[in-house]
């Protein structure tokens, strides 16, 4: 069998952004954190695996971008001229970005695994992972997929109530 390519080899730190429920501002926090890290001179990738509502392409004004394939997988979309923020989102793969994705668990989990393995990030200081809301199978799939890379940690977004 072919040796598994490691598209995360050039990524220094992985940070998961999680929430117990939807609508708490997880994608906004992920986007703001990416912009703040870029402002401090870091190269940042955002992996938007929020299958139900991929809003980050819209927040960064790249919702009309297309994702291309290269030898080592999908090429993320560069958000800015100096290519300091790259983004991969399920939104780029949907026919109409506003479509809700209704898939059964195994298909979602397979897509998340593919997203983790098959995006050619290159060299990054930080990879921010915007996860789906809640505490479902997708979270377990996401965390399991990143476990070999030993993530730096997780940011849990909550609201006062």
From TrEMBL:
GO terms for molecular function: 4 iron, 4 sulfur cluster binding; ATP binding; ATP-dependent FeS chaperone activity; metal ion binding. GO terms for cellular component: cytosol. The keyword tRNA processing does not apply. One of its GO terms (biological process) is iron-sulfur cluster assembly. PROSITE patterns: MRP. It comes from the Eukaryota. CDD domains: Mrp_NBP35 (cd02037). Keywords: 4Fe-4S, ATP-binding, Iron, Iron-sulfur, Metal-binding, Nucleotide-binding. This is NUBP2 factor. The lineage of its organism: Eukaryota, Metazoa, Chordata, Craniata, Vertebrata. The gene is Nubp2.
């Amino acid at each position: 069998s072919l040796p598994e390519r490691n598209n995360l080899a050039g990524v220094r730190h992985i940070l998961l952004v999680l929430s117990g429920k939807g609508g708490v501002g997880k994608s906004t926090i992920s986007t703001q954190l990416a912009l703040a890290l870029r402002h401090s001179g870091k190269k940042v990738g955002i992996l938007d695996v929020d299958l139900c509502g991929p809003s980050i392409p819209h927040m960064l004004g790249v919702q009309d971008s297309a994702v291309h394939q290269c030898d080592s997988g999908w090429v993320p979309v560069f958000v800015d001229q100096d290519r300091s923020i790259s983004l991969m989102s399920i939104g780029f793969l949907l026919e109409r970005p506003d479509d809700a994705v209704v898939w059964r668990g195994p298909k979602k989990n397979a897509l998340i695994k593919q997203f983790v393995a098959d995006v050619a990030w290159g060299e990054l200081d930080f990879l921010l992972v915007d996860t789906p809301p809640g505490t479902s199978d997708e979270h377990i799939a996401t965390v399991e997929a990143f476990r070999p890379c030993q993530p730096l940690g997780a940011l849990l977004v909550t609201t006062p109530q």
